[in-house]
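== Protein entry: sequence and backbone fold ==
=== Local backbone shapes as whole numbers ===
==== Amino acids and backbone structure tokens ====
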Amino acid sequence: MNSLVRRGAAAVVALALFGLIACDLWLGGFGAWWDRHSLTGSIASNLLVLAVAGLIVDDVVARRQRRDRAASVAVQGLIVFGQAKRACSAIVSDDAEKPRSSAAADELRTLANMLLTASPSLFDDPAARRFLEQVERFSVTMIRIVTTSSAAGLSADNRAQLTAEMSQLETAVGPLLARIPPQDRALLEGSPEE
């Protein structure tokens, strides 16, 4: 949405600048008014040129940077996704004798550290931001389940909730995975190439 507002503002400023140029070329009285108010005309024209340059150039540069970083952002997303899967597996595999194993706690701690490290780069990309929001919700769910699970282990409802949220997370990471070539993705995921 911010990108749409920025593009709209750039279009309005560019149209205003072209409108002023057209009026100056074709309307005789228009130029005379600006001649009598030269300071105002100079300030207005400088601000419009600065706004056009700032908005348009900033949008072009930001889009180019997002495109250039798309693959590295996708790889970071895939790494975070892999850690979320390991944390979920550690929680689900806990048996009734050790419902709060140190393995699950370690995996959740590692996931939290990864989220803190990867968040700045994931936040700038819209698809990565949606994935980041989903993995953060999933992390909170996993932490809540681990801290509130009984000595008997996970309930069927908790297992179903983890499965459903993992499915949502797989959907959210899909657009990021599409940016990575399949052979590279297989290497990063640690699975044999299909």
About this structure: The mean pLDDT is 80. The chain has seven helices and no strands. The chain has two domains: 2-61, 69-189.
